[in-house]
């Protein structure tokens, strides 16, 4: 955990969130500024700053994040109609919190990625 990390504080329960999933490795919660009708973040419980700071030991964790995201998409009814998984890396991509996270967006037709 990082004491000054927003997502670490959410994982710890110090900042409220609308949690939709949690197991021993990841937590998922609704984005407070949704870009689509379904916009959920999947974050590892362990603080991993960015995708660039992930190592081979995080390989199973990142794969688990993707599997969990697909399950949430199914529960939210967007698995078959389509959804997008996004990992932002660095400020130029729009990453605002330096804690690895996966965005699940869906629930409407999504435009092309620029």
Explain how this protein is built:
The chain has one domain (6-106): HIT-like (HIT family, subunit A), CATH 3.30.428.10. The mean pLDDT is 94. Helix content is 21%, strand content 22%. It has a 5-stranded antiparallel β-sheet with strand order 1-2-3-5-4, covered by helices on one side. It is an alpha+beta fold and 114 residues long.
Highlighted features:
114 residues; alpha+beta; HIT family, subunit A; five-stranded antiparallel beta sheet; 2 helices; 21% helix; globular
The proportion of residues in beta strands is 15-25%
In the CATH scheme, the class would be Alpha Beta
- Supply the number of helical segments: 2
Strand order of the largest sheet: 1-2-3-5-4
Euclidean distance between termini CA atoms: 34 Å
Give the overall average pLDDT. Answer: 94
Major sheet details: 5 strands, antiparallel
Q: Can you say what the CATH homologous superfamily is?
A: HIT-like
Q: What is the 3D form?
A: globular
Radius of gyration: 14 Å
CATH architecture: 2-Layer Sandwich
* Secondary-structure element string: HEEEHEE
- What is the CATH T-level topology? HIT family, subunit A
Helical fraction equals: 10-25%
